[in-house]
Amino acid sequence: MFCGDPGSSGYASCAEQEGLFAIASLIPAMLALVLMVAAFATPAVRRNPSLRTQTLGYSLIAWCLAGFTIVLGALPPL
User: Fold this and answer.
1) 31 near 69, Cβ under 8 Å?
2) Of 14, 26, 32, 62, which has the fewest CB atoms closer than 10 Å, so is most exposed?
3) Quick one: pLDDT at residue 78?
4) pLDDT higher for 75 or 64?
5) 52 Cβ contact list (under 8 Å, min separation 6)
6) Quick check: 77 and 14 in contact, CB under 8 A?
7) Which band of pLDDT confidence, cut at 50, 70 and 90, is reported for residue 15?
8) With bands split at pLDDT 50, 70 and 90, how would you rate the model's confidence at 16?
9) Between the CA atoms of 40, 41, 44 and 45, what dihedral angle is there, to the nearest 10 degrees?
10) Mean pLDDT taken over the chain
């Protein structure tokens, strides 16, 4: 969402909401980090290559979601 010109009315609240949206990207980022650690640290996942691949795939999806939300939240108010 584009917030308009920095001098326009409502720009500050729009930029603040967009900043909160960018901070919300921490949720999928933390999920991705947990999945990556689980893929390499959990013995049950390490023994099964297909389960490790699936876990890393979900981690990649979570990283993509985190990147997408931070781009949506951080770039428009600039």
Assistant:
1) no
2) 26
3) 53
4) 64
5) 39, 45, 46
6) yes
7) confident
8) confident
9) -20
10) 82
Rounded Cα gap, residues 49 and 43, in angstroms: 11
- How far is Cα 56 from Cα 62, in angstroms, rounded to an integer? 10
Cα-based angle 36, 31, 50 (whole degrees, multiple of 5):
40
Chain center to CA of 2:
20
Token look-up 């909401």 returns 17
For the chain, the 3-state helix, strand and coil shares in percent, each to the nearest 5, are 75, 0, 25
Report the alpha-carbon distance of residue 53 to residue 56 in Å, rounded.
Answer: 5
What count of other Cβ atoms lies within 10 Å of the Cβ of residue 32?
A: 21
